[in-house]
Amino acid sequence: MNLSSAGLPAPEGPGSVSRAPNLPARFTDTFTSRYVDTGDLRLHAVTGGEGPALLLLAGWPQTWYAWRLLMPALARDFAVVAVDPRGVGLSDKPLDGYDTGTLARDMVALMDSLGHHRFAMVGHDVGMWTGYALAADHPDRLDRLAVAEAAIPGLSPAPPLFGSREANDRLWHFAFNRLADVNEQLVSGREHLYFGHQFATKSAKALPDYAVRHYVDTLAADPDALRCSFEFYRALDTTIAQNQKRKSRRLSLPVLAIGGAENLGASVGATMKLAADDVESLVLAECGHYPAEEAPEAMLSALTAFLAPYKNGHASHVPTARGGEG
User: Fold this and answer.
1) What pTM value is reported for the model?
2) What is the pLDDT of residues 263-277, one digit of tens each?
3) CA distances from residue 205 to 58, 177, 239 in whole angstroms, order as listed
């Protein structure tokens, strides 16, 4: 039992395991929702399985639910922790702390509270940003890092303002999400239009309607959830400054970089090669921005092979990067 969570109420509502729609068969036999008190905030995590610890962190605008199709198989080999970061789902929604240095510290505190000093991690989208920060800032904590479908602000080359139409269609939400207030005013009451457009245009295989509704309804149900969905982008000035310092400390741990052929493709691997020495790049065919849901079997196969040395208890590297968040 996680002693830090003793006395906390059981998570309830649509964001919890007990209320999430269309979960894989017997999912609740293995996984439960729990609140974890990290000292600074309360995070919602879905945990289950046995073996070495594996942290799963999704990105904008999703929750732990993004991993549901992979979790049962992963739980046969790992103690799986799928978490809602600060501002997301059933986790606390503070006013600040959305830079990746703070988000990485949140994940370290979470895993400490769960009794996991060393762990592997899979991060998607903003979860990839956080995974990079965690590997750079806390190199003694991660054994292996798999990342998917993101560019990393402050590490990846910045696109031009007047880029191609294709690039604009893919990236325009960055500028919009960074606005101070008007974006919330424009999106409030139109969450299904805005976020639905994001899911529809960034996937090669349409996500199930029930999944899109689940994500969007979670954001529409709470003004703080909508606000926080933009805070990751409003904190980009801080994150970029941190990453410009982090990239001087190259990562030595093994990294798997996954891109969807119909979205970022090989650029995910190219991004990680700017920061890490041991990078395996994988491009999933007929897949867009959401590989865990669009191509779950291919992603599971890749993760199983990549994580095998960690599962088998073979130390795969000696951390060389040192230092704080930059």
Assistant:
1) 0.94
2) 999 999 999 999 999
3) 18, 25, 31
